[in-house]
Amino acid sequence: MTVVCYRFSIVNLSKAESLYSVGMRPLMYSTKDAQLNQVGWKRCGENITYFRNDSQNGEDEANISFTLSFNLDFPYDNDLVFLAHCYPYTYSDLQDYLIRLQNHPVKSMYSKLRLLCRSLAGNNVYYLTVTAPSLGDVPRKKKAIVITARVHPGETPSSWMMKGFMDFLTGDSDQAKVRHLTPSIKS
């Protein structure tokens, strides 16, 4: 086994600020590491830099680009490796999560999944309501907070954030249970 180090440079990025400048690292999935050590996605990379590219003649500030560079070791020969900006969270992962939530004997009492619309690609776009059940037959008016995530397909960090938020709201913590029992959220 020979460890090979490569330098990656991703050029022509458009954002002036980057989390890579303050410690964020790319993610790597090695099929060999997964097979041999049951390791999934993990943070990787050394000597990570994010910098402004040199301006071209006459280039205005609106067209400035940036580069992300990092070193990465590949410890296995003949390995299939995937790199990512953040942990992948697919549409299928989301669908599986929503089905588990709706099939859960307790969590389903506090959550209601409804179809909002279909995307241009024909995928279902849901909205999920989490609240204490109405008492009796008469529905009451309740205050509401709307939280959205993953407005664009590549925004998987917001999917992870929303999954964690939903896990908290529907979880067993004392804080989550108090929210289920009170008629409105107090600040």
UniProtKB/TrEMBL annotation:
Q: Where is the Peptidase M14 domain?
A: 87-187
Q: Which InterPro entries match?
A: Cytosolic_carboxypeptidase, Peptidase_M14
Q: Which cofactor does it need?
A: Zn(2+)
Q: Which family does it belong to?
A: Belongs to the peptidase M14 family.
Name it. Answer: Peptidase M14 domain-containing protein
Taxonomic lineage of the native organism: Eukaryota, Metazoa, Ecdysozoa, Arthropoda, Hexapoda
